[in-house]
Sequence to fold (194 residues):
Amino acid sequence: MTPLTCRRSMLGAAALGAFCAAASPAPAQRVGDRSRFLWVRNGAGEEVAGHYIRADGWIDWRLVQRMQHLFRDLRENTAGPMPVLLLDVLWLIQTGWRAERPLILLSGYRTPRTNASLEGAAFNSRHMEGQAADIALRDVPIGQVAEAATSFSRLYNFMGVGTYPGFVHVDIGPKRAWERGGMRRIAERPTPSP
Ligand SMILES: [Zn+2]
Fold:
């Protein structure tokens, strides 16, 4: 997905303008500044805020490592993979609100044991690959967060987006969408992985 030799983030910012025209403008950046800022708070109240992509377009792996720790399975205090592509997806979503508030991370990486203990979690959940995040934004209706995520899913033709009471599941798997209590398909994949 994002090997160590990958120097640049995978999603372009081309789509951001279209989305932000409907929401809020992205934070002002100097011409040529390719940095990407992300601000996340986990269930333990820990926060990481910083540029995981630097102004020159290179990944700041130390910041990615801090995010990896933040996204760990809190029950087992175990960190999993931290694909930069997932950070890109979260960055796209957060930037729609000008990164004025942290993304609330309700669930990031899960060990198989934690996943198995959660009611309603898919047996093959992408959380166990570090490829999914359950998120919310303070003072933003969940429907709006889901709408933003879904718009990027359509645009980039990948991502799972699940809408639940109180949070949105996003993952970097194939394109599909669902809501708790009933699938609202935007793709042909039969099995969601909440
Ligand atoms: Zn999830």
Summary: The longest helix spans residues 142-156. Residues 65 and 82 are 8 Å apart (CA to CA). Residues 1-8, 13-26, 185-192 have pLDDT under 50 and may be disordered.
